[in-house]
Amino acid sequence: xxxxxxxxxxxxxxxxxxxxxxxxxxxxxxxxxxxxxxxxxxxxxxxxxxxxxxxxxxxxxxxxxxxxxxxxxxxxxxxxxxxxxxxxxxxxxxxxxxxxxxxxxxxxxxxxxxxxxxxxxxxxxxxxxxxxxxxxxxxxxxxxxxxxxxxxxxxxxxxxxxxxxxxxxxxxxxxxxxxxxxxxxxxxxxxxxxxxxxxxxxxxxxxxxxxxxxxxxxxxxxxxxxxxxxxxxxxxxxxxxxxxxxxxxxxxxxxxxxxxxxxxxxxxxxxxxxxxxxxxxxxxxxxxxxxxxxxxxxxxxxxxxxxxxxxxxxxxxxxxxxxxxxxxxxxxxxxxxxxxxxxxxxxxxxxxxxxxxxxxxxxxxxxxxxxxxxxxxxxxxxxxxxxxxxxxxxxxxxxxxxxxxxxxxxxxxxxxxxxxxxxxxxxxxxxxxxxxxxxxxxxxxxxxxxxxxxxxxxxxxxxxxxxxxxxxxxxxxxxxxxxxxxxxxxxxxxxxxxxxxxxxxxxxxxxxxxxxxxxxxxxxxxxxxxxxxxxxxxxxxxxxxxxxxxxxxxxxxxxxxxxxxxxxxxxxxxxxxxxxxxxxxxxxxxxxxxxxxxxxxxxxxxxxxxxxxxxxxxxxxxxxxxxxxxxxxxxxxxxxxxxxxxxxxxxxxxxxxxxxxxxxxxxxxxxxxxxxxxxxxxxxxxxxxxxxxxxxxxxxxxxxxxxxxxxxxxxxxxxxxxxxxxxxxxxxxxxxxxxxxxxxxxxx
Length: 748
Fold this sequence. Notes:
Layout: E1 9-18, E2 25-35, E3 40-44, H1 51-58, E4 66-71, E5 88-91, H2 103-113, H3 118-131, H4 146-158, E6 164-168, H5 176-192, E7 196-201, E8 212-217, E9 220-225, H6 227-234, H7 239-252, H8 262-280, H9 363-378, H10 381-401, E10 409-415, H11 424-430, E11 437-441, H12 445-453, E12 459-463, H13 467-477, H14 483-488, E13 492-495, H15 500-524, H16 550-571, H17 574-580, H18 583-589, H19 594-623, H20 632-656, H21 660-677, H22 689-696, H23 701-713, H24 720-747
Parallel strand pairs: 3-7, 3-8, 5-6, 6-7, 10-11, 10-12
Antiparallel strand pairs: 1-2, 1-4, 8-9, 12-13
Helix pairs in contact: 2-3, 2-9, 9-19, 10-16, 10-19, 11-15, 16-19, 16-20, 16-21, 16-23, 19-20, 20-23, 20-24, 23-24
């Protein structure tokens, strides 16, 4: 094959399958294709026949199972080759446009990705807007009609004047008038001969204007030729009937493919070539002899050229009778052998020297991606404002709703102690905090317990008969007091403990009331109040407050949880939406790397996270006055790392998922396990041992402990509990971001 590498696209024995085992689907089957340079090549076939898969293999977006693919002379993804890159323009079947952009911004964005100067980009934009009859350049893409959007998508594919233009179903779903206009544009570009155009379509007849068509079915080409030659060869009025004939013959003739001897095939080739030469000399005007239908003929044209794989010359004249096939049940091969597996040629090329641009991300690409993401934020002010305000609302709700003292709890009181000058029960009841416990006098214990069971009260306080007398006797007799005295001086409390926090609050309130009651009584008797206290004293704590609210414990974990999961929510849909709309495919073909996309998204979302962190900290320390004994800088740094970690997890979810619902389910599904196991709600020391060790390696556990140490103890990076939190968060961030980039690269 001396001409290998001279075509725009060459495929030799190309095979590709999806799935494994019983679910294995062979999409491309030893396919061979040659696309001549400077021509329009129509790849025709029904949906699902492998057209898009073939193009993705030619662009390097899919890896092949076997065979050889050359795009513009070299295999795709060859270093420094520009495929994918600026040498190819790609228009996916989806519109793949950003609705928040104007027409000009859309074109400038892709011009930047293709490293075009602003002067060249503006000149090219003016040319394309005029050529495609597009409206005012500053009109938003979202407000364009369907036909205008498709023309903008067409302009994006042409912005860098590519050598190879690939259009995947450019006319699907459009009206006949726009379809005709698209073909007019294609013919205009083809006249220059500088751009090779490949388009896929399942509208067979519209491809009659192409120079060469490839008729594809079930992952193989049934024919590859000038459409007019195919129509003349098979003596059908339409190209669609030719395709149907080829499909039927392919279905019926799989078992008869080798029935005709090779000598007969060779004789048939010679016969067709000879008759064509005689026809060109005017010696023969009609033939009655016919050739076998499956003859793999390479017909010599009157100008001495061969039309194998389609020359595309407009002045080709082929007599219909000279190449008219004889009706026969078998496989139609058209004018070239399309399904016979041949030996894959060896192809060698000199690799260019490695440059730093081949290793490191492109700053220009990342700048374009960053500007694109920022522009989307600016064009969606309502959504952007919501993203800024929501964390603040959640922090406020946490401080207002969590850790406070329960109020207005109805508790039944049965006081059987008779009134008198030494009635101590009334003094005890007077010490109870009225803001928390509402005392409801009840006549009998049975009635109170019945109401308690019916949910009317949270508890019952039962003061026995002659309580004051027995309490005095208890103090006088001391260790000699009998059980009757002890029981008669004891207040009995029955609680509804279904709500543990309320039950504990009532217990704590009554114990505090009793301590205050003893102090009042002993003081009135000129005795030392310490005599009535439990001989156990809690001195001032080294760190924190003994009566500090539960909010102080939860605050550190809640803050980083809010930042972490908002970052997950911001990024978990990023790639899903862009992949679904075809935008990712478009920028991959433009030569953008997966690492550049990941870094640009992280940079954009980091700006949002920074604003969220600033607002959250203002409300935490300035409004709700959370104590802070340590460095605010370390707190901010930890929260930023948690935001980056959350973004990386969101990117990983987005890279894995193909639908919004799956991404949302994964993001929500990760929320509660991380929240419950990271020690935010309850100390991890209370967990079973296996869960304890799992909790230790989660991204938020050590970070929350580190922030608690900074806020409550004033520790710095010299303490293990602090720096291990930074190390763990950084490690999680880098691992998750690397995995997201790898998954994106693999799924390309």
